[in-house]
TrEMBL record:
Keywords, ordered alphabetically: Membrane, Transmembrane, Transmembrane helix
Biased composition regions of type Basic and acidic residues, renumbered to the chain: 222-236
Compositional bias per record (Gly residues), positions renumbered to this chain: 163-172
Spans traversing the lipid bilayer: 12-33, 53-71, 78-103, 123-150
Biased composition (Pro residues): 202-213
Protein name, per record: Secreted protein
Location of the region described as Disordered in the Swiss-Prot/TrEMBL record: 159-236
Amino acid sequence: MTGTMRIPRSRGALSGVLLLLLGLWGGLLPFVGPYFDFGFSPDDTWVYDTARLELVIAPAIAVGLGGLIVLSASNRAFAIFGAWLAVLGGAWFAVGPIVAVLWDPGTVGTPLGDNENRQVAEQLAGFTGLGVVAVFFAALALGRFAVVGVKEAHLAEERMGHGDGTTSGTGRGTEPDHGPDSGTTQPLARTFGRFSRHSPTASPPPPPPPEPMPARHVPAPGDERVAGQTGEDWHR
């Protein structure tokens, strides 16, 4: 299980970038929105107070930092921590202005829009909608980090095998690796023997030589056996 804690950095790249951008948007909107007549009162830029610290800056840091962790982490546990941090920041963007009335830290101001549609858009862009979108992408990252892919499990098994010497070719009881990049050379007979056993293109062994035929007796000229005679009877 330890080997599966490593993840590719690209696993949370998209969610991490989007969370980082959402954190920057949420943290800067109340301060720079008056430049574009889109934001919250007072109608002045870079106004700081305790309410904006608790309801704007704190969740923006949580979402942005969580997105940065998700974007750059190569450890599964650390990436999950970053995703949860972004979830909390997004949730606070969505419900913070409602819950904050319990301890009365103040308000971040009223929307600057001169009609209801624009005021709703400013409220969604600065708090409620922003928080929901941040929670969505953070939850998406959590789902991706919680699943161990087949390729990751295979790579983890290979790393564990190299660690205990079962597949690295250098452990006790295993055959050393004599591949083309190992820097060593096998004995010639062993190499050819392995090739002939396993390679489908190896030529078959040559057939055994034929057995010699028994020699036939050829009589010398003048020494002919007369048909019908036996023993020492010869006709010369």
